[in-house]
Design goal:
Layout: H1 25-46, H2 53-73, H3 81-106
Helix pairs in contact: 1-2
Length: 113
């Protein structure tokens, strides 16, 4: 038998296993503490009269908290580039749909009929 009949044509088998990043529990505890503090900040901010900025501040805090959850609890921070691209594509699609919805909403002639 020749060497070329072997699987891999004589080359050593290459293993392409992903390296798993081990996150220490202290990182999770710090993230949970930050999320709890930011929840308190959200409640505190809801009692302050900021006019049209109330929902903007609440959404900004919510986006920050969601980013922490996605990065650390869903392990996107330590994932492959393909996973990060998939998350970004989903976020881009969501923002595009929200943008189209808002452009339709803003362009309506409310009360002019």
């Amino acid at each position: 038998m020749s060497e070329h009949n072997e699987v891999g044509h004589g080359h050593e088998h290459e293993h392409h296993e992903e390296e798993h990043h081990i996150v220490p529990p202290t990182v999770y505890l710090i993230i949970v503490a930050i999320l709890l503090v930011m929840t308190g900040v959200t409640v505190w901010a809801s009692y302050i009269e900021m006019g049209v900025y109330n929902p903007i501040v609440a959404l900004a805090i919510g986006v920050f908290k969601a980013t922490l959850v996605v990065l650390f609890f869903m392990h996107v921070k330590y994932s492959t580039k393909l996973t990060k691209l998939t998350v970004f594509a989903g976020l881009f699609t969501f923002l595009a749909l929200i943008g189209m919805t808002l452009s339709d909403y803003i362009s309506r002639a409310w009360g002019r009929w």
